[in-house]
Amino acid sequence: MVSKVTTVAFQGIEAVPVDVQVHVGPGMVAFNVVGLPDKAVAESRERVRAALSASGLALPAKRVTVNLAPADLPKEGSHYDLPIALGVMAAIGAIPAEFLTDFVVLGELGLDGTLAPVTGVLPAAMGANALGKGLICPQSSGGEAAWADADMTILAPGSLIQLANHFKGTQVLSRPVARLHGNAGNLPDLAEVKGQESARRALEIAAAGGHNLLMTGPPGSGKSMLASRLPSILPPLTPRELLEVSMIASLAGELGEGKLTDRRPFRAPHHSASMAALVGGGLRAKPGEVSLAHNGVLFLDELPEFSPQVLDSLRQPLESGEAVIARANHRVTYPARIQLVAAMNPCRCGYLGDEALACGRAPKCALDYQGKISGPLY
Ligand SMILES: Nc1ncnc2c1ncn2[C@@H]1O[C@H](COP(=O)(O)OP(=O)(O)O)[C@@H](O)[C@H]1O
Ligand SMILES: [Mg+2]
User: Strand order in 103-105's β-sheet?
Assistant: First the structure.
C-alpha cells in the first residue's frame, strides 16, 4: 500500500510543499529513497530503520520505496527523516494514515528514535499554516513553530514513541508556547563614550533614520567602540519584521532554543569573509551575512581590508534589498534590506594628516588604500 505525508523543501525563505510517498510491497527486501535526494536525505533510510526498531517497530521483510515528489526538485537537509518514518509507519499500519493528512511534518531522527532539531521550522510552520495544515516538528523547535499562528495545531514530540502515543491517545502532547528572548545580557552603552559629540550625533541620526554610515579616522579613535554601541540605540523590531528576520535566522540555524528576539540584528563579519559568507550560497544556498542582517545593521570594520570582489558583491543587495544566489538549476532569493555601517583608517599606517605620526608616503598611500573601495560603494 502507498501512504502519503506532506513535508517541505526550502527555496529561499519560501517553504515548497513536498509529498513523501511510501510504498511497501513485494519484491526483494530493500529500502530505497528516490526523488533527487542529496547525501543527507539518502542517508535518512539508515536513521529511519534504526529509529523504527528502537521504537519497537521492525521493518517488514518487503521492498520499501520512498518517493519525494515533485521528483525534479532537489531535496536537501536532514528534516526528511521524520516524514519518511511516519510514512513507513502508516504504510505498515502502525499508525492510522488519516492522522497524517492534516499535518506538515519535519524533523531529524537519532538512531534511538529521539528527534533532533532542524533548521527552517518557522518558515515551514508559516507554509503549513498557508496550506491550512498543522505542523509536526521536534520538541526543541516547537517554540519557534508556535509563532506562525496562535490557532494552528502544532505537535512537538521529543521522540517517535511520544508521537505514536499521542496518536494512540495514551499520552497527549500539549501545544508548545511561543517565547521571546528576554534582555539577553547588557549591551555596551552609548553613554560610556566620552566626548565625540559629532560622531555620537551621526550614530544617532543613522540609527533613527536607518542611514548607511562610514566612519574614517586614525587607529584608536573609537570607531569600533562606537559601532559596537549602535545596537543599544536601535529601535526594536515590529512584529512583522520580527517574523521576517526570524525566518532567515531559522534557516541559518541561528535561533537558539526556538526562542525569537525583537532585537534588531547586528552582524559584524570579519574582513576575511568570503563572498558566499557575505551574500549567501555554498552547499545549500544558505543565507549570508547581508540576509542575516536584514532589517538591521551590517557592520564592516576595516572596510578596505575586505577583498574588493566581496565588497562589490554587496552592491546589488544594497541596491535592490535582496540577495539573489544563482545556482546551476535554480535561483534562490533572500531578503537583504540592511543598514551598512563601516569603519576604516584613512590610509595604511592610519595617521594621514598627522604631522608627528604619519609615514612618509602620503598622499599616495592614502589614495591607494581608499581606492580599494569601488566608486559606487563609496
Ligand atoms: N571617546 C571615547 N570614549 C571612551 N573611550 C574611548 C573613546 N575613544 C577611544 N576610546 C577607547 O579606545 C579604545 C580603542 O578604540 P577603537 O574603537 O578600537 O578604535 P578604532 O576602531 O578607531 O581603531 C576603545 O576600546 C576605548 O576604550
Ligand atoms: Mg577598530
Answer: 30-34, 63-69, 14-25, 2-11, 103-105, 134-136, 154-155
Cα separation of 312 and 376, whole Å? 9
CA distances for 61 relative to 20, 30, 50, angstroms? 21, 8, 15
What pLDDT does residue 205 have? 95
Decide: residue 176, CB within 10 A, 0-12 exposed, 13-18 middle, 19+ buried.
Answer: buried
The residue whose C-alpha atom lies closest to atom 6 belonging to ligand 1 is: 222
User: Residue 136 corresponds to which cell in the numbers above?
Assistant: 509536526
- Write phi, then psi, for 114 (nearest 5 degrees): -80, 160
Give the pLDDT confidence score for residue 355 in this predicted structure. 77
Q: Which ligand is nearest to the CA of 268?
A: 2
Sequence-distant (6+) residues with CB within 8 A of 82 are 105, 106, 107, 108, 109, 115, 136, 138, 160
Phi then psi dihedrals of residue 161, to 5 deg = -65, -40
Ligand lying nearest the CA atom of residue 301: 2
pLDDT at residue number 185: 63
Atom of ligand 1 nearest to the CA of 221: 22
Query: Under CATH, to which class is 2-168 assigned?
Result: alpha beta
State the pLDDT at residue 183. Answer: 63
The Å distance, Cα 145 to ligand 2 centre, comes to: 39
Nearest CA to ligand 1 atom 25: 225
Instruction: HSE, CB side, 13 Å, CA atoms: give it for residue 229.
Output: 18
- Confirm if 97 and 3 have CB atoms less than 8 A apart: yes
- Enter the CATH code of domain 190-370: 3.40.50.300
Question: What is residue 184's predicted lDDT score, i.e. its pLDDT?
Answer: 58
Q: Calculate helix-pair angle for 44-54, 81-91, nearest 10 degrees.
A: 60
- The parts of the chain modelled with pLDDT lower than 70 are 182-185
Ligand 1 mutation pick, 225, 299, 344, 357, max ligand atoms within 8 A of CB = 225
Q: Which residue ranges does the chain devote to CATH 3.30.230.10?
A: 2-168
Cell of 330: 535554480
Grid coordinates 576575511 are at which residue? 272
Q: Residues spanned by CATH 3.40.50.300 within the chain? A: 190-370
What's the confidence (pLDDT) of residue 9?
Answer: 94
